[in-house]
Amino acid sequence: MLKSYLVGVLLASVLTAIPFGFVATRTLPPGQTLIVIGVAAVAQVVVHLRYFLRLDLKSRSQDKFIALCFAATVLFILVGGTLWIMFDRLPYRVVGDATTIS
User: Fold this and answer.
1) How far is CA 43 from CA 2, 48, 87, in A?
2) Distance between CA 81 and CA 2 in Å, rounded?
């Protein structure tokens, strides 16, 4: 059991370090960096569900299935809400235009 937790910590650390490294070194264009951050974030949610909460798709337990659906719903709301706020407010954050009031 401890081995599983250690694997989870290692994977979570790697999935945190990869996007951080891309942002710190600026090796990718900003659009591709955002894609890497998003993919790593979703992968990290899967790692947390699998290694720390012990949820998998093999078990037939209804409680685990409900918890997995809840996690997917929360992930959808967080990602969707973040993108909605970012792109909805984008026209109001134009720098250098004195006529635009936010």
Assistant:
1) 21, 9, 23
2) 36
DSSP 8-state class, residue 57 = S
Burial 37-59 (b: 16+ CB within 10 A, else e): eeebeeebbebbbbbeeebeeee
12-41 residue pLDDT tens: 999 999 999 999 999 999 889 989 998 998
> Whole domain around residue 27: which residue ranges?
2-82
Q: What are the backbone angles phi and psi of residue 31, rounded to the nearest 5°? A: -65, -45
Residue 100 lies in a domain: no
pLDDT tens digits along 68-96: 788 889 888 988 888 888 777 766 665 55
Decide if 96 is inside a domain: no
